[in-house]
Amino acid sequence: MDSGAFGRAQKPPKVAKVKNKTPAEIQITAEQLLREAKERELEIVPPPPKQKISDPDELADFQYKKRKNFEDALRRNKNVITNWIKYAQWEESQKEIQRARSIFERALDVDHRNITLWLKYAEMEMKNKQVNHARNLWDRAVTILPRANQFWYKYSYMEEMLGNIAGCRQVFERWMEWQPDEQAWQTYINFELRYKELERARSIYERFVYVHPEVKNWIKYAKFEERNGYIIGSRRVFERAVDFFGDDHMDERLFNAFAKFEEGQKEHERATAIYKFALEHMPKEKATDLYKAYTIHEKKFGERDAIEDVIVSKRKHKYEEEIKENPSNYDSWFDYLRLLESEGDAEPEIVRDTYERAIANIPLVPEKSFWRRYIYLWINYALYEELEAEDYEKTRQVYDSCLKLIPHRNFTFAKIWLMYAQFEIRQKNLQAARKILGTALGKCPKNKIFRGYIDFEIQLREFDRCRTLYEKYLQFGPENCTTWMKYAELETLLGDCERARAIYELAIKQPRLDMPEILWKAYIDFEIEQEESEKARALYERLLERTQHVKVWMSYAQFELTLAAAQQEDSLLAVAAARAVYQRANRSLRSAAQAVGLDVATNKEERVMLLEAWQAFESDYGDDKALEAVKNLMPKRVKKRRRIQTEDGSDAGWEEYFDYIFPEDEAAKPNLKLLAMAKAWKMANETTTNNETSNDENVQNALEPQPGASTSKESNLSEQNVDRDDTSESSGSDPE
């Protein structure tokens, strides 16, 4: 039967199908159900019936049943202490003290470590004024459980309430032998103070601060002495506390309290000495509050120097915190070192040690941007050793260490090399200075090192060395125009003009220069100073072969104008020469405009600049006819509009701009129109030649202007007549 039962397929349990799964309109919570049940009082339990006992037999029967119930409960589980306590309290209510005492004793046999059981037992004895029983019970309790502070508190309280002061003191003494917590000692001290036993309280404090050697307990002891008028004793307690904790376990709370005590006694010098002693021997991070208290004290009672010392100490502490948080914060190191150096009585060893700590924080990334601030630590260190400490050998060691540290293959600092060389010069050691700069040029040649080395040799009047250095410098950077100019200036000062001219010639022949215009100007000025006007004019001509810049033309014209005045020649010739330069410049710029197109804005600006300079020249030196001729060349300034296109080629609207229309360009437009018509006629003839097989009518039509040719001619004319169309647009017509 079992196998058949298990063989049959079990049907799944039926689950009630919920047709409507939407939530109810009114939601009912469990809290609401409980509230309604409480309001309707659905769980009312009727009170037990009251029984009145009228005779001793009935009382005995009631007591028998009650005791039987209690005993049955204890037999079921004797480890439930609450049953024992209820049983004993019921016997107490029946005035059966002996029975209650017996029940408590039986309970103690079951669990003698239960604190509640002892407390209930002792409370019963005290409530029934059984003093000796209670005293014996407390003795047993504190003997069995000496670490239970409740027993000692209640025992001492009972003895004090009974007026047994000696017995209470004896209880406290027994308690203190177990070295309880701080509150127990404080309770004992308060007990003695209630009865004016100051000496006993002092002796308790003496034992207390050694059992619990904490700063706050020593401070309490000192305040106790101060509160009771023992000022010397309070000071002695503070001093003993300082000696007790020593230098290894110093606490700012102790020194702060000690200083405030002395301040309260008007002993300001003592307070200041305490503050200084603590700040000198304690770590800075553990003396924050002490710094604040010291500052406030000095502001109240100190002198100006003392206040400044406090502020300096506080700033030192601040910098130490910043450096500890971020050792690579070089700005904090600079401020800290500047503060140490500003102190008049600062020891060199302290400053030197701080510098060593600062330079030990080498940047981790070998990039010059991260080393720029760091390298100034070495510079300041070297300057301090040289100027303040006057230790020249140490200064030389600082420079050597710095140069060994810098990764010269990646980058270098020319300032360090130059300062090291200047230091050796101040020490009158020229050979060492030259060796340093030569090493710098060999390891990491830089423009600044070359210039510094050359200036150094110039000051020493070693011109042959200067020439050698300039040659090396030019090999290092031949595109540097400033180097060529300085080299030529040196030769000029030495009176060797041919060498200077040769240097300029080599310079302008270089394939690549950074500032060629400055170099050419310097070369021309050199020839002018040497009164070589023909050579200067030749230089202008050579320069114009390379560039047609308007400023070159203007400078050329000014040169021709001032040349005659300098040589005291006829001014008319000078004016004619300058005018000829302006005319050449105008023709050159106009031909350049025709070569690149009429719509080049830069070319037009240059032409306008040239004409304005020419007009100013004619107004100063020319006659009315020449001035009128230049005015006729001046362009008209018109406002135009043009389309703006974005990067993707879409139309972005129109913008206004100013354009210049030159009379010479306007006069050339009819010729351009004639050329366009000739081109159209030529195209028509070519079409006629290619269509020889057509009839006469077609030939005659071919000889006439073709529609396509007309269209192309009109388009060409429209392209060539840009200025006229733009002018019509500027007159106010719609561009569309």
Automatic annotation (TrEMBL):
Domain Pre-mRNA-splicing factor Syf1-like N-terminal HAT-repeats as annotated: residue spans: 317-479
Xref: InterPro entries: HAT, HAT_PRP39_C, HAT_Syf1-like_N, HAT_Syf1_CNRKL1_C, Syf1-like, TPR-like_helical_dom_sf
GO cellular component annotations of the record: nuclear speck; post-mRNA release spliceosomal complex; precatalytic spliceosome; Prp19 complex; U2-type catalytic step 2 spliceosome
Any Gene Ontology biological process: spliceosomal complex assembly
Main location as per UniProt: nucleus
Record-linked Pfam families: HAT_PRP39_C, HAT_Syf1_CNRKL1_C, HAT_Syf1_CNRKL1_N
Positions of the UniProt region annotated as Disordered: 1-21, 688-736
Annotated keywords: mRNA processing, mRNA splicing, Nucleus, Phosphoprotein, Repeat, Spliceosome
SUPFAM superfamilies: TPR-like
Biased composition (Low complexity): 688-698
Record-annotated Pre-mRNA-splicing factor Syf1/CRNKL1-like C-terminal HAT-repeats domain positions: 79-302
Subcellular location: Nucleus speckle
Compositional bias segments (type: Polar residues): 699-720
Family: Belongs to the crooked-neck family.
Function: Involved in pre-mRNA splicing and cell cycle progression. Required for the spliceosome assembly and initiation of the DNA replication.
Full protein name: Crooked neck-like protein 1
